[in-house]
Amino acid sequence: MSLRNELPAPARIEFTADTRLVRSASNRTGFLTAQSERAGTTAQLLPITLAIFALAFLLPIWPWVSGAVTIPWDAKSQFYPQVEFLARSIARREWPWWSPNVFAGWAQISDPQSLLFSPLHVLLASLTPAVSLRAFDAVTFLYLFLGGVGVILFFHDRGWHLGGALVAAMAFALGGSANARMQHTVQIVSLAFLPLALWLTARALERSSWRSGIGAGVLGGLLAVGRDQVALLSLYVLAGFVLAYWVSGEGRLARVRASIKPLAAAGLTGTAIAAIPITMAALLAARSNRPEIGYASAASGSLHPVHLLQFVFADLFGAMDPKIDYWAPQSPIWDAAWGSPGLYLSQNMGLLYAGALTVVAVVSFGLIRGGAWSREIRFFTIAAAALLLYALGGYTPAFSLMYDFLPGVDLYRRPADATFVLVALAFRRWHPAGARSGRDRDRVLHRGPCCAGAGTGAQRTLAARRGGVARGVHGSGYRLELRAACLDSAAARALRCARAGHGE
Prior knowledge:
This protein is mostly helical. The protein has helices at 17-26, 36-65, 74-91, 119-127, 133-158, 162-174, 176-180, 185-207, 210-226, 229-247, 252-286, 295-299, 332-338, 356-368, 378-392, 398-405, 419-425, 438-466, 477-500; strands at 98-99, 106-107.
């Protein structure tokens, strides 16, 4: 079945004074209002889109969910023992709020890394007292899958093309920092909540729905309970999203009034979920030797500007290839040639690649066609720019202002963590707002993802195997970069062919 959405021909309108008033009223709906006609056609294809996404997601992650390999490093040394402790505590019918296994005792309820408030990890621990490595990895991938579902649902409610939603969901779930830093389990959980929270927040605002507001509050509360930097930045994105809804277009006061009920429901629900864990964490931090992070220490975790090249070229500096000497900033090779930048980052923290089609979408639809500033995605462009400045840390004066004036920023030591949310917002570029007309939008996205799907799938699988979740990539770095460049070119040609094939 084709994913193309056939839109009904618009009815002929006689422009009288009355119809001008109706048209003016319809224009006051703001940047969130979905096109009802397109939403109706995409509703029929939503189950098929979700099924295709499930299959496309399963293929590259199969080595991990089958147990052939496992997510290494922090996932097993830091987070897996937490779930084991939780599972044993539940099996013994003991409260897991306190652990005697750390120092002279440790308040698990105060520890953001305890996973006590991660719903799927709690469910896993309640099912078995002996959690396997394979089951633990499966929960990580399930979170990413649910985040991708949130992307598709957001596209669906907007009436955007579901072909673009598929590509965007894959880029979100298996690209950028979600790929390269999959071992950081808590941050993966927080990242997965963001698209779902955005989807429900948009619904609550659009429909003035207190039920959607409660759902958004649950996800916002779970984000806050994460108490990590990805969660903090995601909450700022949600707050900015609400603010953009209020100030965009006409009828601002009416929108603010209509949003009071759903936002109150969201606020009360989120506070009920997050208040106790956040208070406990704040009390623990106040009694620790690191209640806050100094600016110099935080700036040492900045993303070096040259790492932005890795948005286009996967693992350009050989971070995950044992056959290449790592040569990015803060490596012996770089320091000998250009001097030490004084950074403290792991090698995989600069890996931003999210697929060839993502690059093409950002450059073509977003920059060249100007879609990045279209009304429907303008907020995401501004948010992505702010997150980029945050991630660059000490390399711009913007982070110093954020550190001084934004609550919570001084609690974290690595602004480069913003790349999780930054790359996640890049999926909005797959909204075809940069096309010249509604017909062009369908033409560009009808065949583009389908024609380039094989190349993108191969490239994304390559990235998934070498982006931080396992070692042992075969072949030289030069061959891999050549392969990536060829697939980038193939993706661009596929989009051009899609347009040419429709007579443009």
